[in-house]
Amino acid sequence: MKLFDVYPLFDVNIVQGKGCHVWDDKGQEYLDLYGGHAVISIGHAHPHYVETISKQVAKLGFYSNSVINKLQQEVADRLGAMCGYDDYQLFLINSGAEANENALKLASFYNGRTRVISFAKAFHGRTSLAVEVTNNPKIIAPINDNGHVTYLPLNDTEAMKAELAKGDVCAVIIEGIQGVGGIQLPTSEFMQALRQACDEHNTVLILDEIQSGYGRSGKFFAHQHTGIRPDIITVAKGIGNGFPMGGVLISPKFTPVYGQLGTTFGGNHLACAAAIAVLDVMKEENLVENAALVGTHLIEELKKFPQIKEVRGRGLMIGMEFSEPIKEIRQQLLFEQKVFTGVSGTNVIRLLPPLCLSMAEADEFLSRLHAVLK
């Protein structure tokens, strides 16, 4: 059987990782400035992470959500304390797309509406509702194109207010920082106006923090830079440091009903062990603070490169926009300088390294980038 060929692949076979470095099957070491789409939060093969999940799988890897699993409550307690949302409720699932699916379902259960506001260049996942609120017609199949969504320009306050004033909007879904869209930041003024307008019209505000959350921006959630509290927050990627997991943080205004949501694998014992280990390491090693410190340094230094048109981002979620396509630059970084980076569109290189990236490793990346751009 062949693999379904939907991924263009680099000719590199990564077989080992440690911290912010990975190695291929030939023993070549690479500096990892991408973390597998922001998934690697605490670093590859962190000893505490490895020990925690190894001990758990040796005892019990999985049982169903029809029995008590105290590890789920431990995740909720730890997460609530670290992120500042201990009064919210937590529903655990398997992925970011699934988190957004459930968030949108909850919003529609709440107010009975079906229309959703999303934004230009938004990316929220590839499943039914998640892909419909994603602003990329190339990946929206006809069966997903159900007319639920109105896309608005990001940071256009007047357009947003006009749509919400129609009184029929179920939910607004917005990324804390747009990732796939090129590291675009919603302004504090826009987010505060959006929060107020959603309150006025009984519209649910969903913050997609799947890529921008879990400390990446230098605060636990990127929206916390703007001084608002959403009704629902979705998380995934960094929550399990590579173990497939997602979550929905749900405000007290929502009342759970038996059978309303469900999942087979979500919140299983092994996933919870991974999530607890991640929170342990984030707290013990001050990784949110490190992301702010090292990220600020990287952004300041990248702005000194005359070849880069614009640098955008917060913490360790950084976009470098060039005037020309970046394919060759990215290829040189990978194959000549041995650095993994990401991409957004044709002209933006995206950096999403593990949150443990050190100042020395950041400077090493800057040196290797300079070697390519000179």
Automatic annotation (TrEMBL):
A single GO molecular-function term is:
transaminase activity
> Pfam families annotated for this entry?
Aminotran_3 (PF00202)
The protein's required cofactors? pyridoxal 5'-phosphate
Keyword Zinc (UniProt) = no
For this protein, the parts annotated as crossing the membrane are none
UniProt KW keywords? Aminotransferase, Pyridoxal phosphate, Transferase
Looking up InterPro entries in the UniProt record yields: Aminotrans_3, Aminotrans_3_PPA_site, Class-III_PLP-dep_AT, PyrdxlP-dep_Trfase, PyrdxlP-dep_Trfase_major, PyrdxlP-dep_Trfase_small
Family note: Belongs to the class-III pyridoxal-phosphate-dependent aminotransferase family.
Instruction: From the Swiss-Prot or TrEMBL record, give the protein name.
Output: Aminotransferase class III-fold pyridoxal phosphate-dependent enzyme
The organism named in the record is Phocaeicola coprocola
